[in-house]
Every structure is written in structure tokens, then in C-alpha cells.
Here is the input.
Amino acid sequence: MKKIIMILLTLVVMSGCSAVTKSTSSPEPYSVGILLSDSGLGDDSFNDLAFNGLERSRDELGIIFDYAEAPDGNMEGALEELINQKHDLIIGLGFSVQEALEIEAKKHPKQAFLLIDATSDLENVTSVTFKEHEGSFLVGMVAAMTSKTGTVSFIGGEDAPVIHKFQSGFEQGARYAKSDINILTGYTNSFNDLNAGERLAGDQIKKKSDFIYAAAGMSGIGSLKTAQAKGVLSAGVDADQFFIAEKSVATSMMKNVDIAIYNFIDNTLNEKKQTPSSYELGLSENGVGLAQIRIVNLKPDQMKKLDEAKEKIISGDIDVEAP
Here is the structure.
């Protein structure tokens, strides 16, 4: 990773036959570029969290940053633009950017990259992934505990391995809380299709689902709003999405992308050891978690079971299997 460039400013003031020289030095700010994922800025979820992490890094650590989007799908071009801006670090957000990022990383071996939600073996790429299945386990428990129909459901965006982790954890948690729970699943095949999210949520509600967990980006927002319109409970994802549908969202599975980005930059600037080329963050690392539970009132024994499950996952007594 490039070191912060030091600029030496020398002021020479001459008076008669004598000269007085003063030297001051100030480092250039550490610079970060980020390529956002498909749904772009303003998704109240994954992208906005990453942006928040960079804003915090700017305010508290003094970095500067810029961002790029690739609505036309030209991720290599967007990454090239960021590379040409000479950033110290370039972040690729989301598994869909991996192929383009690795192409650019091979072309620019001295450029440092951070890949979030996928794992790369390249030397100049650090990877950060999350144990979404651990946080989703807790959401599944809340869903099963609050369901009156005995049917709950999951909505994914693209049919991809990282989304399978959300689904698998949700299913395991729901069955841990209630072994005979009925679970419906479906995919919108897009992270950016509100209508598809609305339609799929509507179909699941017709099949008696009274709790919908959506891990589908902007498509998921359509699902949450439909759940609210139909009077059923739901759970958000990545960020606390309560304010999207305040009469429906009982909790959210927090995926702390903002904290991961801030900590990585902080460690880099303070030269703290970061020997692994990849990091996987779960409940014990505060990489994932559960947002405040609202709207519903869990019974004391249910809250106890939920808290105990979290501690057992952290201790390893409960092994939430990844798909």
C-alpha cells in the first residue's frame, strides 16, 4: 500500500547578505475511491452503509474520498476512472464487482484494493466477507416467535452464494425457535426491481406468510412496503430499515459494512497489523447483528431464548451452517 506522500515546503526569505530558511511539512490526505454496488447510492442499505463508513472516516480520520457507480454495467471502466484519480485505496463493493476488480488489480499490481462481499487471492486485494447466516439466524427466530399463521418467508435478490447465506441462516433460526414452522422462499433475480419485490411479497402473503425477510436491495424495499400495506411483519437487511416501513419492520439484520470500512482505514493509517489477506466478520467480531426489535413485544422467555442463542453462536455452542 502506498505510503502517505510528504510534501516539503521550503520558504526562503533573503535579507541583505543573510538568508533565513523555514521548512514545514504536511501530509497529503489519505484518499479512497469506492465503486458502489448495483443498486447505487440511496438504497437505505448496503451502499449507504459503505458511504456512511467513508463519511465517518473523513470526519474522524481526515481522509478524502470519491465514489463511482456503474449503472451501465461497465465496472472495469468505473474502476479505471478511480485508478486514474490516484487513490491510495480503491474499494469494490459487492460480489458482482469481483471479476472486474481482479482484472484491474492484475493490470495495476501496485494499487491497493479492498473487496467487500467476495474473496480474492490476489496479493494487492484484501477481502472482507460477513457471516450473514449468523445474523439471519436471529431474524429467523424472531420471525417464528411472532408468526401467528405458522408460515414465514424469505425473499432474496440475485440467486447468489452470499444471498444463500441469508436464506440458510434465516431457515435455521426459524426452525430452532419453532421446529414445525413453514418457510416460503423466492428470488426477484434483481437487486433493483421494486415491482418484483412487491409481487413476490404479495404472492407469499397470499400463501399465509405473516413475516417476510428480504435480502434483495431495492427490490427488498418493495417487499417491505408491500408487507406494510398488507398488515404483516417484516425484517430489513444490512441497515436498520425500520423507517422504510414503520408499521411492518420488526427488526433488521445489521451488516456492519460501515464499521468494517472505518476500521480497515483506521488500522491502515495507524499502521496496525493487518496480516490476513481476508477477513470474515460475524457476531463475535460485530460484523453482523440484530437491530432494535420494534412493533412486537417478545415475551420474557422468548427474549431470553434469543439472547442465549446469540451467546451460543458466539461461543460456538450453536453452529450456524453456511450453505
Notes: The first strand starts at residue 6 and ends at 15. The two ends are 34 Å apart (CA to CA). DSSP finds nine helices and 14 strands in the chain.
